From TrEMBL:
This is Doxx family protein. The chain crosses the membrane at residues 44-62, 69-86, 106-124. It comes from Pelagihabitans pacificus. Keywords: Membrane, Transmembrane, Transmembrane helix.
Length: 138
């Protein structure tokens, strides 16, 4: 599951390095512009986002710093949902039940969030169980 998430992050992040190739470029620029009150320029913001996404993807694919990757990805995912609040008219035909195509594009990220939480809690519960088993002498 982690490798699948990593591949998606690598793929979508890599596209953002090339102007007007990513279908999410406009949305990403507008969202970052709104969240930073225009402090970060659009061209810089999309490159920073590309670096972040490719970095997350590499961590998952290489299976390093897994917990850190999960937390950073969860924060990133939280940010991907902000257009629902910032750009309601672009996200919904009739809020909150009828999303536009853009809203559907954003909403599908809930699947990634679920997968990230599964990775986080599966790893955590396994660690806890192993720790408990060692304490009990098992």
């Amino acid at each position: 599951m982690a490798i699948s998430i990593g591949v998606v992050y690598l793929w979508f992040g890599f596209l953002k390095f090339f102007p007007e190739v990513s279908p999410a470029e406009g949305l990403a620029k507008n969202t970052i512009h709104a969240l930073t009150f225009g402090f970060i320029g659009d061209q810089v913001s999309i490159i920073l986002l590309a670096i972040l996404e490719v970095g997350i993807g590499l961590l998952f694919v290489l299976n390093i710093f897994k917990k850190t990757a999960i937390y950073v990805a969860l924060i990133h995912m939280a940010c991907t949902f902000t257009p629902f609040l910032l750009f309601v008219e672009d996200s919904f035909v009739a809020a909150p039940f009828i999303p536009t195509l853009l809203g559907q594009y954003i909403g599908k990220n809930i699947i990634i969030v679920g997968a990230l939480l599964t990775l986080l809690y599966t790893g955590t519960s396994t660690s806890r169980q192993n720790g408990l088993n060692k304490k009990k002498g098992k």
